[in-house]
Amino acid sequence: LDLSNCSLHSVPPGLAEATTAIVLDLTENPLTTLPSGSFLGFIHLQNLTVPLTLECPGGSDAWQDVTVDRSSRLCQGQRNACNSSVELAWPCPENSVCAPDGPGLVQCLCDSPFHGYKCLREGTFPMLLFGGILGTATVSLSLLLWGTQRRKAKTP
Predict the structure, then answer these.
(1) pLDDT tier at 84 (50, 70, 90 boundaries)?
(2) What was the pLDDT predicted at 54?
(3) Greater confidence, 153 or 18?
(4) Taking the model in full, what pTM does it have?
(5) Which residues neighbour 112 within 8 Å (Cβ) at sequence distance 6 or greater?
(6) 41 within 8 A of 101, measured Cβ to Cβ
(7) Residue 84: exposed, middle, or buried by beta-carbon count in 10 A (0-12, 13-18, 19+)?
(8) How many Cα atoms are found within 13 Å in the side-chain-facing hemisphere of 114?
(9) CA 81 to CA 74: how far, in whole Å?
(10) CB crowding 85-124: b at 16 or more within 10 Å, else e
């Protein structure tokens, strides 16, 4: 994805849709900062070229090789932060596993059959019970409102 010399003053919001990009060039743009969530989900990104004034997202520890040119910085070979020897600031809870989520970013995914907050619930999500309660509540509330409000709609 070549976004070089596009007069970008900030990271375009549509960039979040390009998570499958392998090569990204942001050189020759007047970018001042890269917000921390700009590359969330970019797990396939292997070559990122940014203006010299910017650092590689996630820091130099998130990349295997950082090369500085006279006008740009090339970040190559995204490292898996889950395999890093540096201890994570927020380790994943029990019943979950660490997964990369972009340069220097990680996410915790629940192991099967666990789900829910901090992966504490075992089994599958009770879809039938959830849908039944939600449907019953919606129909009941709709009938109540229809019954109480319909006479007001008939008067001019």
Answers:
(1) low
(2) 92
(3) 18
(4) 0.70
(5) none
(6) yes
(7) middle
(8) 13
(9) 19
(10) eeeeeeebeebbebebbbbbbbbbebeeebeeeebeeeee
